[in-house]
Each structure stands twice: as C-alpha cells, then as structure tokens.
C-alpha cells in the first residue's frame, strides 16, 4: 500500500472580504517534495475576478493527472519493449457536462499523445496502439475514476 498527500490552503485577503459569493478562489497546493502550485477555481465555472485564470484549476489538474499517469506507464512499457523515445507530448482535453445523475462532472478526457521515437527501431501503428491500450489498462489514475478516457494517437 502507498499513501499520498497534499496540503491545500486558502486565506481570506484583507481587501477581499468573505461576503456572499464574492471572494477569491485563489489558493495553494503543496506537495511532499516542497513544490507549491498556485491554484484557483476554473474561470469556466466561477467568473473572473473571483477565479484566477493564470493558476491551475482542479479540472485542468484532473486531465493532467490522467495524461501524466498514462505517459509514465507508456514510457515504462516502451522501455521494456526495447524502443527509445525521444519526446512525448500530449494535449489532453477534458469535457465537463452533466453525468447520468444530472451532476456536473468531467465525463470524458481525450488523450492526444504524439510520440517521437529515436533510432532505427520504430513501432508499427498497430504496436503503438497496443502500447497505448496497455498503458491505459495499467494506469493507476485511469483505474481510479469513472471518467471515460480515450486515446487519439497523433502520428
């Protein structure tokens, strides 16, 4: 068993009284390695100026966590298969909409990986699809959510 933790902190500013719905959604995420990430609600959910567009929002972080887990699993599988990856880029997209219970949820995330391989040994498209399929099946985060995760491979 492994345990993971994060510290989330928010503080009411002197110039931003906590009144009705008019308060800043800006806050911080802190992780065990000392990384401090500026966060906020999504400006798609809570309008400006209460959200801070330049900060990471939970919805973006959710799509990023799925993408990152998929990538790390994929790189592990590719290394085991004897391929060398030169670069990996994913432009993940999450869709928030009403779920089957009528609640707002990120119901779908589409991963769009573009992988550049190094050297003479290159996987076929079928092998690449199989590696991404296996990465999805073994991804810890994908195995933890109800969200539909699809992969649209870019070549």
UniProtKB/TrEMBL annotation:
This is OsmC family protein. Pfam families: OsmC. PANTHER family: OSMC_OHR FAMILY PROTEIN, OSMOTICALLY INDUCIBLE FAMILY PROTEIN. SUPFAM superfamilies: OsmC-like (SSF82784).
